[in-house]
Amino acid sequence: MADYWDHGGVRYAIQSIYSLPDDAWCFELSRARPDPQTTQGWLPGNAVVFALVPDEDLSLEPTIHFDAKELDLPLAVLARFMEIVTAEAERCRAALLEAAVPADRNGPG
Predict the structure, then answer these.
(1) Is the pLDDT of residue 10 over 70?
(2) Which segments within the chain are labelled E, that is strand?
């Protein structure tokens, strides 16, 4: 599933998928393209930036990868992408830390 938004007259897409080989969420930022199967739909284009957010190992850090040959990005578009990736990284890290706490330290319940 992709989320779409417009900036400066251009529609962008952020798509997230789980990468089993990496044990990480992968977020891809692209310029959206019209869906040839519909008259109103959109599809993600080729990824310009993608981020891997590990959710199985606290020792691994999220990483960002760029494909600079695709297109230039406005700073506001990249900032929005980074906000989404940062929020997901914080969510994954919190879930891992919570899972690492022994049951007797979780308090009553």
Answers:
(1) yes
(2) 2-7, 10-19, 24-31, 33-34, 42-43, 47-54, 63-66
Distance of CA 37 to the CA centre of its chain: 26
Of 44, 63, 43, 68, the closest CA to residue 53 belongs to: 63
Residue 69: burial class (beta carbons within 10 Å; 0-12, 13-18, 19+) = exposed
Using the predicted structure, report yes or no on whether residue 105 has a pLDDT greater than 60.
no
**Residue among 2, 19, 24 nearest 11 (CA):** 2
Contact predicate 27/88, CB 8 Å? yes
Q: Tens of pLDDT along 24-51? A: 999 999 999 999 888 778 999 989 999 9
Residue 57: predicted pLDDT: 84
Q: Are strands 33-34 and 42-43 parallel, antiparallel or unpaired?
A: antiparallel
Nearest 5°: CA angle at 102, between 109 and 107? 30
Q: Which two tokens stand for residue 59?
A: 């020792």
3-class DSSP assignment, residue 82: helix
